[in-house]
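call fold(seq) -> tokens
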Amino acid sequence: QVHLVESGGGLVQAGGSLRLSCVASGRTFSSYAMGWFRQAPGKEREFVATISRGGHNTYYTHSVKGRFTISRDNAKNTVCLQMNSLKPEDTAVYYCAADRRYLSDSLSYVAGEYDYWGQGTQVTVSS
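ret:
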């Protein structure tokens, strides 16, 4: 069982930055690829970014490439999402998720493949 808790959301003006953090419980954090997803009002949950177990591989949805950076610290059971140059269309609830992976460099952008989810943190970008 993995318990995920996100933090760092808030209200920011367009062009600003936020850093989301997600802390995981348990001693098997390094067994999981980690991902960030988001859900805007009236829309389906969408993939944002993912990072492999060891942190060597990352993958981003096209709309955030060059603006967002995902990172992890396995010693601290933490994954972060640095969000720069924020746009109003980035407004959503952001979720951290854990995906048990047996291959160290493999990734997934499919929400259904993730095993555990956090409760979400609200990000609001004003124009």
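The radius of gyration is 14 Å.
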